[in-house]
Amino acid sequence: MSDVCIVGIGIHPFGRTDGLSGLDQGVFAVRQALADAGVEWPQVQFAYGASDAAGNPDTMVDRLGLTGVQFINVRNGCAAGGSALFSGQMAIKSGEFDLGIAVGFDKHPRGAFNALPSEYNLPDWYGEVGQMVTTQFFAAKIMRYMQMFGISQQTLGRVAEKAFRNAVHAPHAWRRQPVSLEEILEAPLVSDPYTKYMFCSPAEGGVALVLASEKKARELGKPLIRLKAATMRTRPPHSFEVFAPSIDVVEDDSAPRGTASRIASADAFRLAGIGPGDIEVAQLQDTEAGAEIMHMAENGFCADGEQEQWLAEGRTEIGGALPVNTDGGCLACGEPIGASGLRQVYENVVQLRGDGGGRQVQGRGSSHGSSGPKTAYSHVYGAPGVSAVTILER
Amino acid sequence: MPDGSEMRAIAEGLFTDEAEPRLIGGRDRETGRIVFPCPPSAAYEPVALSREGTLWSYTVQRYRPKSPPYAGPEAFRPWIVAYVELPGEVIVEAPLHGVGLDDARIGMPVRFAPAPLHPDDPESVLIPAFAAAGVPA
Question: Where do Low complexity bias regions lie (chain A) (predicted)?
Answer without folding.
Answer: 361-372
